[in-house]
Design goal:
Elements: E1 4-8, H1 15-28, E2 31-36, E3 41-48, E4 57-65, E5 68-69, E6 80-83, H2 88-92, H3 96-107, E7 112-115, H4 119-124, E8 132-133, H5 140-145, E9 149-150, E10 155-158, E11 161-164, H6 170-184
Family: Belongs to the peptidase C56 family.
Pfam families: DJ-1_PfpI (PF01965)
Protein name: DJ-1/PfpI family protein
């Protein structure tokens, strides 16, 4: 039976941070499902940098259907979890169904890949305390407040938790996550 990977996201997720791991994990042979607050067509965004701006800009990105609502997810059916960034984590961290899902993955030490603003979700369940992580650099203080040691690096691996700063770090992020996955949940 093919191992299944769950991606949790919502509207305003960064397009590349959802679709790159989705395609890369499928290419590797995993079955990948996207869960959101409800089953619907999600509207992703594109974050990019413009000369003279102090922070990133946001433009409409791709749309993509959610396979499942958070309330339909059985975490026991999944070998690993991917948490994309964008603005989605800002509001998703308030969803009690999603917090139950996240807690289940951390309680069972399953592989988790998080990127950009995704660690806001793991911070919401106290999943970062005592861990080493990276995230979008503007979240350094948030990560420290969550009890993590922040490292400004392409990718940080702490046990089964694999973190990256943002979409420019995809290659390193997925390479390290696949190393963890192949050890904990190989494709059969």
């Amino acid at each position: 039976m093919t191992a299944k990977i769950l991606i949790v996201t919502g509207d305003a997720a960064e397009s590349l941070e959802v679709l790159y791991p989705y395609q890369r994990l499928r290419e590797e042979g995993y079955e990948v499902h996207i869960a959101a607050p409800e089953r619907k067509k999600l509207q992703f965004v594109v974050h990019d940098f413009e000369p003279g701006f102090d922070t990133y800009t946001e433009k409409p990105g791709y749309t993509w259907p959610a396979d499942l609502a958070f309330s339909e997810v059985d975490p026991g059916q999944y070998a690993a979890l991917v948490i994309p960034g964008g603005r989605a984590p800002e509001y998703l961290r308030n969803d009690p169904e999603l917090r139950k899902i996240l807690k289940s993955f951390f309680d069972t030490d399953k592989p988790v890949a998080q990127i950009c603003h995704g660690p806001l979700l793991t911070a919401a369940i106290d999943g970062l305390r005592g861990r080493r992580v990276t995230a979008y650099p503007a979240l350094e203080l948030d990560m420290q407040s969550a009890g993590a040691t922040f490292q400004d690096a392409e990718t940080v691996v702490d046990g089964t938790l694999v973190s990256a700063r943002a979409w420019p770090d995809h290659s390193s992020w997925m390479r390290e996550f696949l190393t963890v996955l192949r050890a904990k949940a190989p494709v059969t």
